[in-house]
Task: inverse folding
């Protein structure tokens, strides 16, 4: 005879379901019991599903290392660029002017170009002589030693053109010195029976070239800054990878 038993309430009226037992099956299998388990609700918006994993920590460390490497590369590049610009501005400014003398045969049309070029080299020696340098230094109001250091004389390849270049801190003084030497060479060639000289291009202070070229040096400074920044960034990545590698 079965007896009636009332059900017990738990909490706020929630009912517990008694475990149900399943007896042995007809084929002799073991009995199985099922128990009711509470359902888990998904995490709310903004809540973490659980503690951070090792993968998340590794990603955070990698991002932090990249930021540090980028900052170090930026600082290194800026330092190199700033230092280079300061050095460029401190360089002494010089102005280079050139006067050109061209030689040609006087009356003998059969004079070869090699002979004319050889004669042009002879007058290059005249241009660099002590007399020529002294007169040019006096005209430009500079010392002989200063002018000799600033003087460059050359014969253009495969031509009979003699170039007299002078680089000084003053463009007008440089042009005066170059033109004075060219005039001295032209006077020396006036008595030559073989060739005649002519000043085909006089040095002009307005068209003097600035030395060293500031624009070229600035480009070099920017390139050096980028190179250093790239090297620092690469080194920072390598150090970060080695630091994160398990021992």
Result:
């Amino acid at each position: 005879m079965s007896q009636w038993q009332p059900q017990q309430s738990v909490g706020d009226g929630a009912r517990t379901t008694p475990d149900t037992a399943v007896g042995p099956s007809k084929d002799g299998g073991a009995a199985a019991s099922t128990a009711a388990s509470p359902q888990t609700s998904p995490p709310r918006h903004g809540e973490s599903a659980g503690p951070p994993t090792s993968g998340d920590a590794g990603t955070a460390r990698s991002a932090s290392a990249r930021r540090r490497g980028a900052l170090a590369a930026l600082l290194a590049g800026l330092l190199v660029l700033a230092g280079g610009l300061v050095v460029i501005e401190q360089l002494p400014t010089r102005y280079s002017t050139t006067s050109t003398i061209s030689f040609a045969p006087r009356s003998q049309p059969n004079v070869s170009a090699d002979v004319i070029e050889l004669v042009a080299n002879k007058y290059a020696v005249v241009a660099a002589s002590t007399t020529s340098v002294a007169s040019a230094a006096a005209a430009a109001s500079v010392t002989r030693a200063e002018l000799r250091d600033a003087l460059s004389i050359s014969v253009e390849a495969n031509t009979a053109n003699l170039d007299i270049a002078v680089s000084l801190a003053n463009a007008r003084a440089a042009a005066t010195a170059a033109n004075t030497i060219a005039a001295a060479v032209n006077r020396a060639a006036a008595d030559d029976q073989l060739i005649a000289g002519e000043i085909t291009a006089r040095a002009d202070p307005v068209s003097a070239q600035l030395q060293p070229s500031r624009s070229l040096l600035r480009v070099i400074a920017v390139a050096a800054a980028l190179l250093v920044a790239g090297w620092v960034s690469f080194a920072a990545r390598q150090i970060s990878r080695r630091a994160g590698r398990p021992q």
